């Protein structure tokens, strides 16, 4: 389990729906739809599922916590069915509280916002960063173990990959915070890149997936042990070719980059920064 300091401080406003047992939470820190879903599934149950709100009275309770600023909900375009689905798994049917729907296509997710004193649904690129609304259903609890619909959305672009020994390293162009990158890698691969088994002879191969822009790897400062460790929990050793390390402290994570003909080098970067990242899989 990662140290609590890695979780970003989020300002939430909670409200209880009288019509059912769900509690809804608005989180005002902007995130992509996928990042918002991961956060909601880890801390609550999921992104807001409004399917059971089949009349204007019930939806107005949620509306009282919206604004002209669009907020993500759990509705997304599912390429498996060429239509809309809820991230919670609910089957989507046209809500009775709205007569108009935006046009959805691959890569678009739904938002909820206020329009002329009424709740309205919007559509935006899932990679945009917006506030979001989660819900907690005590009967379900957290959904971190549930298979998410992430793979059914527009796939994050992969820049390159390289195989070193029995491991494959993949660079993802999409920029995320270190924690969000960690969640993405664990959902799709094994973890953020663990370089403990990359030898001095192998390090040149990494240049195929790194450049002069820091890319997150799985190394971070663990406040419990006051030292660096790998998020994969496979050890804390640093390869000899990476021994020239900067000073790390609380709130700093490792970025890997290279410059010109220099070998790969680790840099200390604030964990909330948005950076590309490197995942790995294999033994």
TrEMBL record:
Which Pfam family, any one of them, does this sequence belong to? Lectin_C
Keyword terms, alphabetized:
Signal
- Signal peptide extent: 1-20
Q: Where is the C-type lectin domain?
A: 19-135, 164-280
Superkingdom of the organism of origin: Eukaryota
> By what name is this protein known?
C-type lectin domain family 20 member A
The organism of origin for this protein: Mus caroli (Ryukyu mouse)
**The encoding gene:** LOC110296300
């Amino acid at each position: 389990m990662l140290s609590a300091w890695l979780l970003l401080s989020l300002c939430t406003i909670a409200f209880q729906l009288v019509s059912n047992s769900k509690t809804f939470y608005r989180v005002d820190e902007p995130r992509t739809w996928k990042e918002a879903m991961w956060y909601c599934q880890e801390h609550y149950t999921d992104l807001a599922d409004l399917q059971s709100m089949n009349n204007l009275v019930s939806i107005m309770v949620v509306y009282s916590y919206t604004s002209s600023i669009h907020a993500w909900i759990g509705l997304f375009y599912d390429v498996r069915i060429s239509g809309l689905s809820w991230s919670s798994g609910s089957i989507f049917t046209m809500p009775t509280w709205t007569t108009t729907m935006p046009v959805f296509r691959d890569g678009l997710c739904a938002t909820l916002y206020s329009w002329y004193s009424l709740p309205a649904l919007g559509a935006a690129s899932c990679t945009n960063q917006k506030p979001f609304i989660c819900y907690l259903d005590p009967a379900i609890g957290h959904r971190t173990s549930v298979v998410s619909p992430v793979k059914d959305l527009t796939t994050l672009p992969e820049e390159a990959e390289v195989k070193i020994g029995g491991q494959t390293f993949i660079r993802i162009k999409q920029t995320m915070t270190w924690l969000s990158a960690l969640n993405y890698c664990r959902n799709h691969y094994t973890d953020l890149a663990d370089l403990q088994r990359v030898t001095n002879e192998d390090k040149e191969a990494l240049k195929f997936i790194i450049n002069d822009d820091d890319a997150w790897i799985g190394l971070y400062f663990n406040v419990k042990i006051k030292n660096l460790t790998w998020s994969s929990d496979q050890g804390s050793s640093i390869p000899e070719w990476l021994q020239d390390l900067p000073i790390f402290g609380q709130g700093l994570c490792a970025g890997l980059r290279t410059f010109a003909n220099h070998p790969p080098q680790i840099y200390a970067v604030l964990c909330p920064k948005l950076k590309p990242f490197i995942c790995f899989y294999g033994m």
